[in-house]
Amino acid sequence: MDVKAKRWQDGPLRWAWGTGIALLLTATLAQAQGLSWEQGLRSDAPDRYTVVRGDTLWHISGRFLRHPWQWPEVWQVNPQIRNPHLIYPGDVVYLYDCNGRPCLGLERGQGQVRLSPEVRRIPVREAIEPIPLDTVRHFLRDHRVIDDPESLDELAYVVAGNDRRIISGAGDRIYARGELENGQRYGIYRVGERYSDAATGETLGLELISIGRARAGRSEDGIALMEVLSASQEVRNEDIVLPLEERELISEFEPRAPESDVDGTILAVPGGVRFIGRLQVVALDRGRQDGLETGHVLQVEQQGERVVDPRTGESLRLPGTDAGLVMVFRPYERMSYGLVMQATRSLEVGDRLHNPRRGVGVAQR
Predict the structure, then answer these.
(1) What does R_g of the chain's alpha carbons equal in angstroms?
(2) Rounded to 5 degrees, what angle do the CA atoms 53, 57, 58 make?
């Protein structure tokens, strides 16, 4: 055990991070699967950090752990905390020895919680976020992906705007063809990118971009009059009309490695960008059928360069380089959306994805 680890073991040194993740890990889990002092902690980790507004779990844990996504492996439930699911600005997480492994406990910030005789209730909205939710909010609430593009022919769609308008907005009336129920609210979507497997050409999913919402009125001969209630873009002819999904915003993530081996690639970046940086959303060519779930973390590997052997003149491919981490936040059946959490260089469409390696850290950028 090095000097810093020994100093941590001798007396509880306290540091903090924020999380909105609902996960209770027991001491047994921490001891059975936890990281060693040498594996888990950065050599330059500060002794103490107090959570401030705007912090996220990933950002703060990266100050202390060599692999930020492995934070659950050193988390220890503190029985004094009535609700360890939520962490607030001012809270402190402290590090202590747990049978030879580092464990974490939580200490509530002064003036926020009194353990006795009663706990002050703090609104959930004040808890800090596990990741920057504003970056992925649109994909979690409004974006949709359909597995079978051929099914588009069976969906209702806009055929005209009122007064022969080509585009319409909030407050306007439009006409849609299809089976629509009078008085019901519907989502309006525009066909986006078709995601295909680079090797086989198989369609993995068709992106539907949310445009707005509308309410169906009376219909005649299969054509319904609709009122546009809201619109983020102009509503156009051929936009798709679908029943609304009552989808709550997911605000809790459990970062972890996939249980099974994953070997995939970055398919695309919504919006058509090719070079990718930290906190950008990317489309992945693996989904639920490949074992991916919300919170799964994948390593990004960039293909090695081609060089010429100076002695033989032979063309060689250098080994690949680990260049970043992506966390899945919205898995579909055959593809997923992920958020780039770390990147040591600009990532690219086509970069390989695989299970994260424990032995090699990725520097944050």
Answers:
(1) 25
(2) 120
Query: Does residue 239 share a domain with residue 272?
Result: no
Partners of 300 in the β-ladder: 324, 353
Please state whether the predicted TM-score (pTM) of the whole model is above 0.70: yes
Domain-located, residue 249: no
Q: Please say which residue of 71, 98, 130 terminates a domain.
A: 130
CA distance 30 to 75: 7
With contact defined as beta carbons under 8 Å apart, do 173 and 162 qualify? yes
Residue 250 inside a domain? The answer is no
Distant-in-sequence, close-in-space partners of 29: CB < 8 Å, separation ≥ 6: 72
> For 82-100, how does the pLDDT look when each residue is reduced to its tens digit (9 = 90+)?
554 577 888 887 777 777 7
Residue 255 lies in a domain: no
Overall number of domains in the chain: 3
Residues 6+ apart with CB under 8 A from 296: 256, 257, 258, 262, 327, 328, 331
